[in-house]
Fold these 3 entries.
Entry 1:
Amino acid sequence: MKQRIELRRVRDFGQIINDSFTFLKENFKPLFTALLIICGFFIVIGSISAIFTYMNMISPLTFNVNRYNAGTQPLGFVVSALVNVFIVILTQAFIHLVTLCYISVYIQKNNQTPTLAEVWGYFRYYFFRVLGAGIIIFFLMAIGLVLCLIPGIYLMPIMYLVIPVIVVENTSFGYAFNKSFRLIKSNWWLVFGVIFIMSLIVSVASSVVGIPITLITVGGTFLSLKGFTLPLLILFSILRNILLLAYALPAIAVCLCYLTLAEQKDGTGLLDRISQLGTNSDDRSTQTAEEY
């Protein structure tokens, strides 16, 4: 039987990137099943919102509208675009949380595949705690970005570690906030680099679907696409929102950063393995006795 990946160990930059893909590959089906079921509603709503946004973008340019519609169409586009952005951000946050809950259960079960019920239970338990932490992080980041941009950039890797600490260690925001600052010391560039590379990969993947949508939107203005415009927009809008599930990859990478730094500072994984040595040997002897 193939040995499952051990999450609680020290990794360098390259190992974090590689093991993020390895973990995703090993847990693809159960992880994405949980993501689709828990986050599926928001993916559907996001797809509908995106379709309305793109149609509002095309309508005032493609069709003849009267003076009243010419004034209201831009407003409709702005409102639908803002709603779509809000839903996308919310969906990304839920995908991030579900992925962290999956990893937390995976660790608790000693590298065994979590069930959907277990992930859903963790998701419900941490939802409001993470929601409150997310609001605080948003305001802290906003303040940091307003203050000459540099403080916001400095805070970004630290804030990314807060949610994994809360979910994996089942702790409060204050404790997670302080621990993130302690873990990031002398490791800022490691976390920043992982976040940058993983976000770049996901952004490039998303842009592959975004290009056809842009061509359809612009082409619908100058070319006669007849009855193909709406079906194509629906198809690519749904595909683009499904690809939001790829944001599970940065969530895995950030969690591996946290586990790496925690292992460097505290050696939690090593201590757990040492404490389980006697238990594992007892279990094996018991199983052998029962078989005979």
Entry 2:
Amino acid sequence: MLNRRRALQIGLASAGSLPFALGLVSAQQRKAPAKVRYSEVVRSVLYAPAYAALAKGFFSDSGLDVTLMTAQGGDKAVAALLSNSADIALMGPEAAIYVHNSDSPVKIPMFCGLILTDGLVLVGREKPSKFEWQQLRGKQIFALRPGSTPDLFLEAALRQNGIDPIKDVKLVRNVAIPARMGAWLAGQHQYAIFPEPEASQLELDGKAHFLASPGQTVGTAQGTAFMATDKYLRDNPDVLQSWTNAIYRAQQWTATAPTAEITTVLEPYFPGVGATVLAAAVERYRSLKLWMTTPAINLRAIEEIQDVLIQGNVLEPAKRVKFADLVVTEFASRAN
């Protein structure tokens, strides 16, 4: 009798709490996801973990409704943040440095890292039995605009190998990005730096051969990272923590997922690019270890990117920025 009475009491208590539990579930279901306007600096296979966060539902699982736009340039990505037409942007760390040193009252600190270093690769028309940087001495190298991050990494890699980028080589910088592939295919220049998937496309077509990664040669100078305005950081800490959690999950997935699965994730973002080319680009970046496996940005990486900027004469030594003024660490430290 006592057991039956006890069972009845438990059942009634459970039944009484059921409406409350259902109310909690209903309230959670009614909570709308936070809308985030996300601007990437360019479209690149280098940003595979970010596409994984979108395609695999990691952002939506974290309560975020993300709209992706492509700025087509660091200056445009910065403008999107400062004009409040984007909430979060992915671009090179030099953007945060330049804005910090500018007259703008709004700053755009980094809060979540994605790439370890620069992602363009050096290619040549001929494939040497063994590549050495000294082979570039006296040659033309198809570079990008002066002061651009890939250009600065190329210069730093040349210096690191005893080559003066001004005196010992000729850096060709007068061709716009959309025309670079056509210029190379037309036979212009002996060496070039290209992003992925363009580099893999050229190699698979027999039009170029991979030689080296300037970014890997330079080392752990911070690559592209996520930024937001200081005001957005203050007003939306929950959104930024959710974002960082999703990116961390995507970084872990990208580090272990088979190449074929990563390629499938990338295909919708690169229409017209074949799966074979995308797979080759994925393998390239994986072998070069350019993808960060956690969102944490460290002091050394920020110091080294500022060294690159100073050597490239785009940052005055006296305007080196303190790590604490450039990086908000709290979200990466709590990522899960």
Entry 3:
Amino acid sequence: MTAGDTHTCMSCGNTFTGLYCNKCGEKIIEPADRSLKSFLSSVLIALTFADSKFFRSIRLVVFNPGFLSLEVAEGRRVRYLRPMPLFFLLNLIYFIFPIIQLFNATLRTQLNSFHGRFAESRVVAKMMELGVHDITSFALIYDQKTTSLAKMMVIVFAIVFSLPLNLIYRTRNRYFTDHVGLSVELVCFNLFVNALLLSLIAAIVGAYISEMVLTAILVTTNLYFIVRSGITFYEDKGAKLILRSLLMLLMLKVALEVYRAILFYVTIWSL
């Protein structure tokens, strides 16, 4: 088979000369394309390309928050993994390995939250429905179920947090999907730094991270992300940057509580 041969495209039926259909772009599959060498070459190229994009993107998320979302929002996307694919990759690792349950909330946490009174009534009703009379036994059932759901519902948190961004930065010529992209980047930052990396460090040094220490780390790292992304993504500066960053940190807490409430009712419904 040569490049000058005439072919009929298997996809669109067009008759053409060469190896690529001039109508739909379909390539003629040659025997060499089915060889082991071709397969291994494709795998190597795919892995090398994906790895370079992953490491380039995650480095930006950690050391230059907001830049990846800025590049994507302005149409420069080829060299990076966009926030959403990066999120799915990190969340897959988060789902597989037993690490800090950053976006999870136990039954005890839910009952002590702002919607605790309503949560308690739903727990009592669900216990009666399941025939469970011991709150400790029900907590074990609930915690096991909500852990798996939390890892699948993290994207809900990103969407919830993007809503106040639309109001806080409504004059910054950013669209809804731009704010969602930054929210997803924030989730990626937390999954990599505060879940994966922090868990790895704790495991290596054999340290136990108390709830107080974990809270301090989360506040500090997220404030870092918010300030840096405010400068890079929203071009904020001065007193407005400080005020908006503190407001975003507050909205981050609100978004987390709303997400946990959603997680609670989804978990109760699925039991």
